[in-house]
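Quick note —
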Amino acid sequence: MKKYYQYFGLALIMVFSFYYTEKIALIVLDKNPLMEEIHTFCEDYEVDSVDAVIQGDYIIPGINGLEVNARESFYGMQELNVFNEYYLVYDQVTPEVSIEDHKDKIIKQGNAKLKQVSLILSSENDISEYLKNNQYKADLLANLESYNRNSYFEVINNETDAFDSLENTLNLNKENKHICVLDDGNYEVCLKNKNYLVEPTLKLSATNYIDVKNHLNSGCIILICDNAKLEDVKLLLKEIKYKGYDVVYLSELISEENIYFSSFFWYT
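Predicted structure written out below.
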């Protein structure tokens, strides 16, 4: 028993020793002139989060804020020992209202501030071949029969009866983005699995290109129906480029991660 108390005492001494060593190191670090300069200017480079917007059953994703990580920023600048904003390291700050806390709501578009749109393919055809050959990002609705592990596109589980089977396959292959594009039969199973519920903003068919073009805005989620024409898709891509939007995967469009390192991009 005596040895037990001795070992216990030594363990306590070691724990407190590490604790106080860390504390002293932090105090010394905070007194470093470069660290003091980082603390002085860090608020000028931080970005407030943007809350998600809830409108009845629907939600528009927010955007994470950016908070300067002073210690990691210091280590990045330490070699030159000069403050340089390009070496600032940021931590993501989740909005108070976030899609992560409201997965029962339906995402009808991405955040318009980011100037992005997403394309969803109902199936693979000449349109998917064109997008792949020209390196456009897009999502592909898949079932167990059509699923291809090596698909160029981001795969979305579009199964109803075998939803869990395809979900498990996507998990095993580390491809699951946990997104559902809602149709008549998958709402309950998607809600049960706590996937992001998505409803396309626009649907491009064989006859409505002008209507889709006129309603094209930043944040749009565009479902390309099986009967859509390749020529219409080409025209739509030109319109997207003309308006200055980037075509991104659906997982990127609805993500609240802030990929910008300065407020200048979307606050000015």
